[in-house]
Give the backbone structure.
Amino acid sequence: MPTVLRVAVPVPLPQLFDYLPPVDVDAAALIPGCRVLVPFGRTRRVGVLLEIARESNVPSHRLKPALMLLDAQPLLDAELLCSLMWAARYYQYPLGAVLECALPIGLRQAKPLPAAGERALALTETGAAASPAGKPTARTNLLLQILAQGPRTYPELDNALPGWRAAATSLRKRDLIVGITLTTRARPHMPMIGPPLNVEQQHAVDEIDAAHGRFAPFVLEGVTGSGKTEVYLALIEQALARGQQALILVPEIGLTPQILRRFRERLPCAVHALHSGLSDGERTRTWLAAARGEAQVILGTRSAIFTPLPRAGLIVIDEEHDASYKQQEGFRYHARDFALVRARSLNVSVVLGSATPSLETLANVETGRYRCLPLRERAGAARMPIPRIVDLRGQRLQHGLSTELIRAIRDCIGRGEQALVFKNRRGYAPVLLCHGCGWTATCTRCNKPLTLHRRENRLRCHHCGADRPVPIACPECQGTQLQTQGQGTEKLEDMLIELFPHVAVVRIDRETTRRKDSLEQLFAQLTPDQPGILIGTQMLAKGHDLPNLTLVAIVGVDEGLFSHDFRAGERMGQLVVQVAGRAGRARKPGTVWLQTHHPEHPLLLTLLRRGYRELAAQILDERRGAGFPPHTHLALLRADASSLAPLQEFLDRATTLASTADKNLQALGPMPAPMPRRAGRERAQLLLLADQRSTLQTFLPAWLNQLRALPEAKRVRWSLDVDPVDL
Ligand code: ADP
Ligand code: ZN
Ligand code: ZN
């Protein structure tokens, strides 16, 4: 009887592939979960061995041997493999590609595993002998001083010296320091003691702890600043005391050095970060340390949900409503939903924390599937900020700000406090217009206005990334009266600098935070007890504790009130509450100013008068009436092509196949995508809707097979999104 290896290969095909064992490999060494290098067409791929079978449907003379067994131990344990298989089925994505996604990049290649241990820096002999040159406060000198006391790991350096990476590069070039791997475990340090928990915090900790050892989902619903992080820390300590691992997920922009530092100060063990800002090597090492059970606390963004946890004790999803948990391309999983699947198979508690839980989560609380633990009060002395509406109708505005608001900012500065101006639009202005003839700078590939970025003097398309110089004259009429319309963060920054020339004004958006460590450095420009102004996009909505910040101005809510997306109201509510939560975090009370042309909008009124929970209840009701999630379940077929005809043909065929399939299934469309054209391609979509998840789940695999076989499918680019977030 031949042995046949069934291998998941990272290719866009749903089936497994059969191979013979590699020559001269012992049968006992072939364990599911190990990686194998296999020939695939004319290339070689790293696949994952899933099963060892007795026979194959492929005729034996056509079976090829795998080239190499890459691991002595399974890299993916049974739990992770099983959860990922579930995800491949649920999200209708090829298993080989799902497994590839779950592995850190360093393990997707047929290379030996990196040495166990942590990346660190140490002085070279030259470095040890060198006497300091240049300014004593220069980062390079500070780094040399730190390393003079012994080697330091990257996480330790993150804590000790923001911006050390640039300094390290220059010192390495001069041969003063080297990168090493520290194999000894991080020395245990004396953690700082946190504040005593208040009654509600303690209650939450007790309830969650009482459930340990089995699957139990909790929602920790606490306004910003109510002390959710303290609850997480207490739960992590309990997991550590039981010798277990804890995985904490935070939104992409939430994993700031500040939160890492707080975890590192407070926990008695190493805290491992996992996010896209790290090198492939660092991520691989952390992943492997977790797989060995050595990394006890892992703090990461979305894809950290694929971390192996052989000794799992707790999973926390902070800001569970955050949109960055949904992967928007390729394998379109939702990390929060997948966390529940993992927690179930690991038999651990999962804590979903938020001031503004998603409606999906609230619906699960309503049906009793999740337990809600509220934190109603702000921790310590902090109070919730007081909301104020600024009715913009008929008012004179200065670059989009009302006189009333400018006066309030002036008063705030006068008291020596700090203000935050929130505008969810980066760049200088979203429109550049010719006053002579009405021409507008437009992206021809997306049919949308280009945003003016004045600092770099470029016109950019925020949809496809197109980038071009700003014309000196109008290309239509040669007139030179080009003017801007609307305002982005750059324009607001200019105006506020002009109004408050003696105050630190800091802008935080994608442009100013491109470099590593830059977010931290920007925040450092605000001295805690000095007046200052922060301007920024939603990057500002979370993560930072600014005790002297007492005024928050939201200057663009209206965009969220009128949108085609059925989630717009929910998002508006979450954003307002989150941004407002930046104010008055310490002893000083805060105020939130909302500028709007629609002061009587029912959603806005409900939010301000009765709070987020009431808003959520109102929207849930509306969605029930309209038949939208969470009361129904969706899958979205998206397609794009260079012209409309093939797109239409493909989606028409797909619609016909779907509408005859199951009476419980509704096919809405085909219809143009919210952006019908992007990067030069036409886009359209078909929405499938069912009352029961199972209706969709039964239908989708067969339908996808039919779609793959359509000749029309070859002429378009298409993808399926199960539980889409953006429609
Ligand atoms: P959240 O995660 O809900 O935004 P945090 O845990 O960050 O809230 O707490 C907000 C602030 O309140 C932090 O400065 C924290 O140290 C402080 N804090 C939290 N819990 C307590 C407590 N029980 N007593 C005093 N201060 C607390
Ligand atoms: Zn013109
Ligand atoms: Zn474009």
In short: The mean pLDDT is 90. Residues 633-722 form a domain with the Alpha-Beta Plaits fold (CATH 3.30.70.600).
